[in-house]
Amino acid sequence: VFSFASVYGALPDTAATRDAVENGVKVTVDTDQVAVFGGVSALIYAALLAGITGFYVMSSATKTDRRLILAGFSPFELVTARCLVLLLLDAGITALMVVIMLFFFTPKQFLPYVLAMFWGAMIYGFYGGLLATVLRSELGGLLAISFLANMDVGYLELPGYSNVIGEWWTQLLPAYFPVQLAID
Asked: 3-state DSSP call for residue 105?
């Protein structure tokens, strides 16, 4: 909340234009820096928090699941339980970011924007969990998640900021479709 509010307060109230698609037609939308920041930062923070949460959920699972398997639980039950917990935590993170965002910015199409934020949170929550199974270092996992979320959601996918948005490989990035849905 502090970082979101401090950056938001430092933004100039200047005009900004963004290319967008409305009803299948490319248009130029006149907006301001504050609205662009509000919409984009909520997506970045949701992805970052979900990735960190996924990392900790799965790293704790690697420590406790051996005992649960010995107690009689199947691996399928354990993975399903972790995934459901992660989905619930992603929904909570999305709700938190929506509440914070509404103090600063209201999207024109609220429900599709919130669904895009949840979709991005789910993707990065599961990427965080995947990183927890590969990286044993807590610091390394946090740095990897921070780098991935900020580069993917925060830079490479944003029209007006990135010069590579039209490249074919940007569609292979994890948050391409959720970010495009949110921007549209």
From this structure: coil
Closest CA to 52 of 117, 127, 136, 118: 127
* CA distance linking residue 12 with residue 96, whole number of Å: 25
CA distance 65 to 112: 37
Q: CA triplet 33, 167, 7: central angle to 5 degrees?
A: 20
For 71, the token pair is 């107690």
pTM: 0.82
What are the CA-CA distances from residue 170 to residues 79, 155, 176, 180 (Å)? 30, 11, 7, 11
Contact between 125 and 70 under an 8 Å Cβ cutoff? The reply is no
Q: What is the pLDDT of residues 17-74, one digit of tens each?
A: 666 666 667 767 667 666 667 777 888 889 999 999 999 998 888 778 888 888 888 8
Helical H segments across 105-167, by residue range: 110-134, 138-151
- Six-digit token string for 21: 């698609």
